[in-house]
């Protein structure tokens, strides 16, 4: 049956009225649902998006008919009804229709003071919000409502040179026109766009007969909710104010005034009304399938419900509410998953700054790793380790981190760097460690000599000063900010298990150590997609041996150094395999240039000369000889493995010997060996021959059969383009999107943060390509590589293991492209799993 819109330009909200959220807004539709549930709502009419647009352009509905539809001489409220409540809207107007005659009538029935307050508050709101008069002129003393009323009416007449409007139709016309035009203004449009609304989003308006919370009998106004806003636990909270003249303020989760506590509270004084509110709350939960907050009034003992809105809640509460609704059968598991924003899970995995506390922001940068921490400023990795030894929390502040800072990052509570982007060394390592991190704080001026840094406002912070790093928002705060404690949520594990039931793309983790592997396993990672072995060499005892290896000129000397490194690597891999029993563990062979293991300052060079028993000049000369103009494009990855093959042979042996050792314990092991920075088929052939020879040797020596696979990390555009030639020699291709983005764009991922925000603001790039995968450039290389590789080898496994692997947008791209899995930092595994579940659920609904 075709729906008909009433010709008078408004629609009375009834059970069968043609009300839809897409045409009249979410509030109007919710009120209709409450009417269908027999909630005691006052008469209400709705103005559609189209009608509000007509009002804004000067075309008005019949005001007298609208008002008469609400009953005889009503006082009215007007409230916004946008499509999505989170998009906001103009502030509500109450008591429209109040005038001198109604004031006199209410004075005789309610008392002079209450009538004066009602009229005074309406005059003030109307003058400021509708007539746009100076708010300061219409301030009230709050002591004598009658005197305030007389002064405000006189002020209105002085400012407008007209008497305060007495005709309810004239008042309502002005209110509707003001709210309609406010929605279409530039400021309002920008605000709702910032909240995710389209620029042309529609606004509806709801006009409702006022149910006053004043009377001779039991009267008042209140708001009641049935869950805690902070944690989602069932609880009756809210506020009730007897003889109230306006809507109660929106209250926090712990605010309960007059509802269940206090002398004469509603629960004790009006038990039947309180029980009815509990019934309505349970009814709305089960029929509206949501936890609702109910606004209500009592007028001489009669209950009226004015509105019901979705309870505003924290991420923790959203998780609890969604899982509770699903467990109770109110919604399905799939609906519960879709109600939780994947990125919001980061708030549950890391401590956060309390949003209600004071914030003294001194710097901003890129929030590279979420969470927050308080600590004393240190400027070196050694100082961070010393602070940890004293039991002090520290924040490592530096221009940029290097692999040599790994130990300091492990010891610090947070990291702040002047340079870097979302895939810089500091950002990647911090995310793996779950360490709050801000990079690219370019306005920070560091003076290492003075052990201090300066902020744009001239403040100076010395080593030892306390600061707070908020890696979620990218802000540095002076002093110790108030923090929210990290709470382990059972609901999180429930949600992740439900996500596992529906997602159809694998999720692994990028790790550097057993500790990170254990975190990943706790979050349900399906194995390790990338183990960066080079970070294992920066421990103090290993670094010395690594430097001896680098300075070895003879094959025998290199062999001696590698013989010392072998048991260390083997122990590392044994720990990883035991942390991931039965799951694949993909180990990337040595990748960085050798210069990263060498000191660059005079004091470090002198220490190294002493350790090697060499003249300082010889050490300095060797370091100079190893330096490259662009080391990230030089002697690293597979190039090092071919020119110094002993390194890869040692690592392969360590992997296979570790697999044999763990297999003897009965734990299944699935090692995967990954070759980094490949550009040519011949590179793969050479390394493969070497690795296979080591595997055969270990098998001969131990007599133990073991399986392994070998693959390539696709980080160069040429490897993606030549994937058809590479694929027949490997079992998998894993796209390292950090380096691949860097090489495709010709951008340094460590330096791009200096100008990337300007590029995004000016529309050169839609998003930072190191943060959100560039589907049209880098993504095309992924598609070409996957297509050509699988054409040559149909059973080829394809994945990404760059930091993009934890982004919902990148996961959608990989899933659509038929990738087998994504791999990301351990603390992003929950985000990736939920995002993958969202994609599968939405596809099942749409298709």
How would you sum up this structure, described in words?
- The protein is built from 33 helices and 31 strands.
- The chain is 43% helix and 18% strand.
- The chain folds into 4 domains: 11-209, ATP-grasp fold, A domain (Dna Ligase, domain 1, 2-Layer Sandwich), CATH 3.30.1490; 220-313, ATP-grasp fold, B domain (D-amino Acid Aminotransferase, Chain A, domain 1, 2-Layer Sandwich), CATH 3.30.470; 351-481, Phosphohistidine domain (Glucose Oxidase, domain 1); 508-538 and 558-593 and 635-846, TIM Barrel, CATH 3.20.20.
- 48% of the residues are buried.
- The strands form 6 sheets. An 8-stranded mixed β-sheet has the order 12-22-21-14-15-16-17-13. It has an 8-stranded parallel β-barrel with strand order 24-25-26-27-28-29-30-31, surrounded by 6 helices. Strands 1-2-5-3-4 form a 5-stranded antiparallel β-sheet.
- It is α/β, with parallel strands linked by helices.
- Helix 19 (514-522) packs parallel to helix 21 and helix 25 crosses helix 26.
- The model is unreliable at 1-7 and 248-254 (pLDDT under 50).
What is the number of helices?
Answer: 33
Let me know the CATH homologous superfamily of the largest domain. Phosphoenolpyruvate-binding domains
Q: How much of the residues is beta strand, in percent?
A: 15-25%
What fraction, in percent, of the residue positions are helical?
40-55%
* Cα shape: elongated
Report Rg. Answer: 33 Å
The largest pleated sheet is described as: 8 strands, mixed
Number of domains: 4
Q: Kindly provide the name of the CATH class of the largest domain.
A: Alpha Beta
Protein structure class: alpha/beta
- Here the CATH topology of the largest domain equals TIM Barrel
């Amino acid at each position: 049956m075709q729906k008909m819109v009433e010709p008078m330009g408004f629609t009375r909200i009834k059970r069968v009225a043609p009300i839809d959220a897409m045409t009249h807004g979410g509030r109007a539709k919710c009120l209709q649902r409450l009417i269908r549930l027999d909630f005691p709502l006052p008469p209400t009419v709705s103005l559609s998006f189209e009608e509000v647009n007509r009002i804004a352009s000067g075309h008005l509905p019949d005001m007298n008919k609208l008002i008469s539809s609400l009953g005889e001489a009503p006082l009215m409220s007007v409230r916004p009804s946008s499509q999505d409540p989170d998009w906001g809207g103009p502030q509500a107007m109450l008591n429209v229709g109040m005038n001198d005659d109604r004031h006199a009538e209410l004075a005789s029935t309610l008392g002079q003071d209450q009538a004066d307050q009602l009229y005074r508050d309406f005059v003030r709101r109307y003058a400021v919000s509708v007539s746009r008069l100076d708010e300061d002129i219409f301030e009230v003393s709050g002591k004598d409502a009658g005197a305030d009323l007389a002064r405000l009416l006189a002020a209105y007449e002085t400012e407008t040179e007209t008497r305060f409007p007495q005709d309810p139709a004239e008042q309502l016309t002005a209110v509707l026109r003001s709210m309609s035009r406010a929605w279409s203004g530039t400021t309002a449009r920008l605000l709702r766009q910032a909240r995710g609304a389209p620029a042309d989003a529609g606004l509806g308006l709801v006009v409702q007969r006022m149910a006053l919370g004043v009377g001779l009998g039991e009267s008042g106004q209140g708001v009641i909710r049935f869950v805690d806003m902070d944690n989602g636990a069932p609880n009756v909270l809210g506020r009730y104010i007897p003889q109230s003249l306006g809507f109660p303020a929106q209250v926090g989760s712990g605010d309960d005034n007059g509802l269940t506590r206090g002398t004469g509270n509603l629960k004790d004084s009006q038990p039947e009304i309180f029980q009815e509110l509990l019934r309505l709350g349970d009814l709305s939960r089960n029929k509206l399938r949501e936890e609702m907050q109910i606004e209500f009034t009592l007028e001489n003992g009669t209950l009226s419900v004015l509105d019901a809105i979705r309870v505003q809640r924290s991420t923790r509460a959203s998780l609890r509410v969604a899982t509770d609704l699903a467990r109770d059968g109110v919604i399905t598991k799939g609906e519960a998953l879709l109600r939780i924003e994947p990125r919001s899970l980061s708030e549950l995995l890391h401590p956060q700054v309390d949003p209600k506390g004071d914030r003294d922001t001194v710097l901003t940068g890129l929030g590279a790793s979420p969470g927050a921490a308080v600590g004393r400023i240190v400027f070196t990795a050694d100082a961070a380790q010393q602070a940890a030894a004293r039991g002090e929390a520290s924040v490592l502040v530096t221009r940029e981190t290097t692999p040599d800072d790994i130990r300091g990052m492990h010891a610090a509570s947070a990291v702040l760097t002047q340079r870097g982007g979302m895939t810089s060394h500091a950002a990647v390592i911090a995310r793996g460690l779950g360490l709050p991190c801000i990079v690219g704080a370019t306005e920070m001026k560091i003076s290492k000599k003075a052990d201090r840094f300066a902020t744009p406002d001239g403040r100076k912070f010395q080593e030892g000063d306390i600061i707070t790093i908020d890696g979620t928002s990218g802000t540095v705060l002076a002093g110790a900010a108030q923090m929210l404690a990290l709470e382990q949520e059972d609901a999180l594990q429930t949600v992740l298990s439900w996500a596992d039931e529906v997602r159809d793309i694998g999720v692994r983790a990028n790790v550097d150590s057993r500790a990170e592997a254990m975190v990943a396993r706790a979050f349900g990672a399906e194995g390790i997609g990338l183990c960066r072995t080079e970070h294992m060499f920066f421990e103090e005892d290993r670094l010395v041996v690594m430097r001896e290896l680098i300075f070895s000129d003879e094959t025998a000397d290199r062999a001696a150094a590698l013989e010392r490194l072998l048991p260390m690597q083997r122990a590392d891999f044994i720990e990883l395999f035991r942390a991931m029993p039965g799951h694949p563990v993909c180990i990337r062979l040595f990748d960085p240039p050798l210069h990263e293991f060498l000191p660059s300052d005079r004091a470090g060079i002198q220490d190294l000369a002493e350790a090697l028993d060499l003249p300082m000049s010889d050490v300095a000369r060797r370091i100079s000889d190893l330096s490259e103009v662009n080391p990230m494009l030089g002697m690293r990855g597979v190039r090092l493995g071919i020119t110094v093959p002993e390194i890869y042979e040692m690592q392969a042996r360590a992997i296979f010997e570790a697999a044999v050792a763990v297999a003897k314990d009965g734990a299944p092991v699935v090692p995967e060996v990954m070759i980094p920075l490949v550009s040519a088929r011949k590179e793969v052939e050479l390394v493969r021959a070497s690795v296979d020879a080591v595997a055969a040797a270990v098998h001969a020596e131990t007599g133990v059969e073991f399986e392994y696979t070998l693959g390539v990390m696709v980080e160069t555009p040429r490897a993606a383009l030549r994937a058809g030639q590479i694929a027949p020699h490997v079992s998998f291709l894993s796209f390292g999107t950090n380096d691949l983005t860097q090489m495709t764009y010709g951008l340094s991922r460590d330096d791009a943060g200096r100008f990337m925000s300007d590029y995004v603001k000016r529309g050169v790039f839609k998003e930072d390509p190191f943060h959100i995968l560039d589907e049209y450039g880098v993504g095309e290389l992924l598609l070409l590589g996957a297509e050509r590789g699988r054409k040559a080898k149909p059973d080829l496994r394809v994945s990404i293991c760059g930091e993009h692997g934890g982004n919902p947008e990148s996961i959608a791209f990989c899933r659509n492209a038929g990738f087998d899995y994504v791999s990301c930092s351990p603390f992003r595994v929950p985000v990736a799993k939920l995002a993958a579940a969202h994609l599968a659920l939405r596809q099942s609904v749409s298709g």
